[in-house]
């Protein structure tokens, strides 16, 4: 019988494709777990991989961009070379120390953890004391260290207090400049100090915000891709799991009937072909993201699958018509529960009851099988099995319970609001 051999080859090919899909999904989940672990480890070390990837996105990228401002100290250096500064040894040590502290502070200003560390704050205080001492001791060109100090303060400090601190620092620099170099010079030093402090803080703050926004955009894009990948894998698993179960059951029925009732066997083969064609349509819809479940359609398929598996189907439905989003979620519950009955329960009878009330609708699927709990998927792996259905219904304001029934067998009960309060939230839950 060539048709029977063809059906068996098709079933073996479908099972092989399903095993390959499961292996691919296991590898993908393993890669995602390793990536998340690496990201957590990087955050624990105080690093941000996303920001590191975009370190070149906004100027200035490193402290080298702030080094040219040290040229403002050339006037003081010229005084030392020309012998115009008293105690040149002290002045030279002060100039070297100030430049060293400036380089130390500005290079640490581009790393948040280092910028907010105690060592950086101590170095900033020492720079302030040294700037005051050099300005009071030498005056003239040495007062230009105050704008340099303001630049270091603006590069290091952030927050609401920076404006007040910049004003206080500029006023302090103007007073010292007036006392040491004359009051005509005081406004220039004060304004230069304030400008260098606030402009540096604004530029660096803006560039940091740009890098963080770009990193956030990439993270959102990555999450969207991951969400869509998990949606597709979950839907494909649910679709193939149910469809292959029906194909196996109907193939077994056709094998049993082939020897004594060829017409009945051919009818089962026709059902297998119909189920396969419908599965292809559903897979295409799942790929495009426009699949919309129907409770009535799933109940019809449930009757066919149960009957093919020698399980007596009993379907009862009452209540007002349901919203499309609620029907879609209940359809997934019927599909999963009936698939588990056919696969695992060894039942002879299965009752599916849909009861609609004023505010909530209840779906109950009960069989008279062994009552052995269906193995649940590991939490966090995705939307497969009863665990995935529980997460979907919870996101839509509903509940799902499953377990052995008191009178024997196994019962799955789902409850959902008749009219979803937020249709967008329900639709999002159905897509997760």
What does this structure look like?
It is a single chain. By secondary structure, the chain is of the alpha+beta class. The chain is 68% helix and 9% strand. It is built from 14 helices and 5 strands. The chain has helices spanning 2-44, 49-53, 74-82, 88-108, 112-115, 118-138, 145-156, 161-181, 186-258, 262-288, 295-308, 324-345, 385-395, 423-431; strands at residues 312-318, 349-356, 360-367, 399-404, 410-417. The protein has a 5-stranded mixed beta sheet with strand order 1-2-3-5-4. A hairpin with a 5-residue loop joins strand 4 and strand 5 (410-417). Helix 7 runs parallel beside helix 9 and helix 9 crosses helix 12. The radius of gyration is 37 Å and the shape is rod-shaped. The protein starts with a helix and ends with a helix. Residues 49-60, 374-384 and 421-432 have low confidence and may be disordered.
Structure keywords:
68% helix, alpha+beta, disordered C terminus, 9% strand, 432 residues, five-stranded mixed beta sheet
User: From the helix content, strand content and strand pairing, which structural class follows?
Assistant: alpha+beta
Strand content: 5-15%
Say what oligomer this is.
Answer: single chain
Q: Summarize model confidence as the mean pLDDT.
A: 78
**Biggest β-sheet: count, sense, barrel?**
5 strands, mixed
């Amino acid at each position: 019988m060539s048709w029977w051999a063809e059906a068996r080859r098709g079933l073996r090919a479908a099972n092989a494709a399903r095993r390959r899909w499961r292996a691919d999904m296991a590898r993908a989940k393993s890669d995602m777990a390793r990536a998340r672990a690496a990201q957590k480890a990087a955050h624990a070390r105080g690093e941000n991989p996303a920001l590191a990837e975009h370190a070149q996105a906004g100027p200035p990228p490193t402290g080298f961009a702030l080094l040219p401002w040290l040229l403002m100290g050339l006037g003081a250096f010229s005084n030392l070379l020309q012998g115009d500064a008293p105690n040149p040894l002290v002045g030279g040590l002060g100039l070297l120390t100030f430049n060293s502290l400036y380089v130390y502070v500005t290079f640490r200003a581009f790393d948040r953890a280092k910028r907010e560390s105690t060592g950086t704050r101590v170095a900033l205080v020492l720079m302030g004391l040294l700037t005051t001492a050099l300005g009071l001791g030498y005056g003239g060109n040495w007062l230009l260290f105050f704008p340099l100090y303001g630049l270091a303060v603006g590069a290091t400090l952030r927050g609401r207090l920076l404006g007040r601190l910049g004003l206080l620092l500029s006023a302090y620099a103007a007073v010292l400049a007036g006392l040491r170099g004359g009051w005509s010079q005081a406004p220039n030093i004060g304004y230069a100090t304030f400008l260098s402090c606030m402009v540096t803080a604004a530029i660096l703050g803006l560039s940091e915000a740009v890098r963080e926004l770009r990193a956030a955009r990439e993270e959102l894009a990555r999450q969207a891709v991951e969400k869509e990948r998990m949606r597709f894998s979950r839907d494909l698993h649910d679709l193939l799991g149910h469809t292959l179960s029906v194909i196996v059951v109907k193939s077994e029925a056709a094998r049993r009937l082939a020897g004594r009732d060829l017409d009945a066997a051919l009818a089962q083969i026709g059902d297998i072909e119909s189920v396969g064609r419908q599965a292809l349509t559903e897979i295409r819809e799942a790929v495009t993201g426009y699949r919309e479940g129907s409770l009535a359609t799933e109940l019809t398929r449930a009757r066919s699958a149960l009957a093919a598996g020698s399980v007596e189907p009993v379907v009862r439905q009452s209540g007002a018509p349901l919203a499309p989003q609620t029907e879609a979620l209940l359809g997934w519950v019927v599909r999963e529960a009936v698939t588990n009955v056919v696969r695992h329960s060894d039942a002879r009878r299965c009752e599916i009851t849909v009861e609609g009330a004023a505010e909530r609708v209840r779906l109950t699927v009960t069989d008279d099988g062994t009552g052995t709990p269906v193995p649940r998927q590991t939490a966090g792996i995705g939307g497969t099995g009863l665990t995935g259905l529980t997460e979907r219904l919870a996101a839509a304001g509903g509940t799902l319970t499953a377990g052995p029934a008191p009178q024997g067998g196994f019962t799955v009960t789902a409850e959902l609001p008749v009219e979803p309060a937020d249709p967008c939230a329900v639709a999002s839950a159905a897509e997760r």
